């Protein structure tokens, strides 16, 4: 059994060695152990300094070092080790070697001296060339640095030194050597192929780039047209791309801003394959710099498909959009849709679709209302980092129509809303309207809601206003210091000073948040003494219908102290309170809709009207008479009272009475009574305004069906 296991073990070990030899064999050694091992094997040490989060480090470990060609090159020459510079011994190794960026590779002699350094990931063939320069003593960083300190480098060696420093990511020293080279290289030197790397860092607009442009024929002959064209393409692409992205900012992190006139001339004169694309980018840059939306549209229309970086289109469009006319914004929206349709990846496609949507709404005169469901609109607002504006209306609401016709079409209103909101219209009697009406407690029309991305109300307006008052109210409603929801947060946090609470109550009433105003009012009143209640200030709280409805605790308080309140606010104010509270209470009975067992004490009601003589006393007397008749369970008697009393009612009461009482009347009337009812309706219709006359036809049709 043992004899069988031995061959198997040997195979496994040999297999492990073969696997390691497939790529670079990184050994599990300490730094000092690697130096000892290198000395014993007469090799150098190759150190890979990396971090766990470094993407280029991962790419090298996954795609470069496992290659057989990598193993064939590194394993015979080096003892290879790698250290995570943020863990264990790697922390000290990183400090010792002076790592500043990752990955960093070092060629180290067995005595511990760094012979060469390379910073950054790259393809295997590039890495091998860089390592070969480090293996060559006369092109290694250690040799060149030593000779430089001794002042013994010639022109070619000085250029080699610059290249070694660049590969080691020592940019400060690179800049220093570049200046020295500029001083000692002659014009003949500069056009030679060997000194071509002198121009590697040359920026457009620099003396070095100007030299290249002035000596294109010689350089093309010595360096090669393909190499030279690629160099020019990259240089001008970099300056144009970075200038577009930074809107004419310094190039490459610190150069001078490009001279547009000089840049235009240079790009125009380039004789390279991608010159038309470079010229297009220049024209985009120029248009964006001066904010010329029309010119930018012309440039992009002519060749947006040619762009190798579509985000340049996005950036320049946004740059000019601030000064664009509505016609230009409409053009930009169409272009955004075109670009979106051309994109393959989902993110870019959605981004340009969103950009197009933004320009489309800004191009619109007046408020741009999206045709979406509520949830879709809410999601869109959330993604756009905007509030959702919801216009809650009905088809019969007069003020709603005024808003839609005169305010929502106003250009100033539209520009503000289209920039800050996603807007939606909801008919509260159709589709999802009734559900949303209930969800947000819409009690009247129009109600204008402003919601955050979570569907929470941050502002609410009820009723219509003309411009410029409308926009002012919208802005005040969204101001945390003046909005009702800002005050509500302070109230919930415990703020209870009298002036603040009274202001909150008023704000709730203005927004028809009657339930909330009642809750705050009742909480306030419960804390006050009778003396504090009997003040003009508190009258405004007590007299509110939702606080002191008919028969409530505070209704009885007002009746008990009506004389004291009359001295404070006047008899007329008290009488109006009595009348306005009794009116809706008695109206329901007058329409025959409340059951007889719920009948009020009509005698007491009449006494209250007799005593306080409110302005609507005749209407109240009529309601009492109608109510008494309706509650007597004698429909014929009630019907005769309707024929007698309704014609005497103020014409403003007719429509509401028929809207509420007609169903009861039609259901119980005989044929003769229905004819009498038709006559009554027609007489009432004649006295109505043009707005209500057409609505009476529905009443007439309702009676005529039976």
Automatic annotation (TrEMBL):
Q: Which residues form the Thioredoxin domain?
A: 20-136, 333-479
Instruction: Please give the InterPro entries that the UniProt record associates with this protein.
Output: AGR/TXD, Thioredoxin-like_sf, Thioredoxin_CS, Thioredoxin_domain
Q: Which UniProt keywords apply?
A: Redox-active center, Signal
Indicate the transmembrane segments per the record.
none
Q: Which CDD domains match?
A: TRX_family
Extract the signal peptide range.
Answer: 1-20
| Name the record gives this protein | Thioredoxin family protein
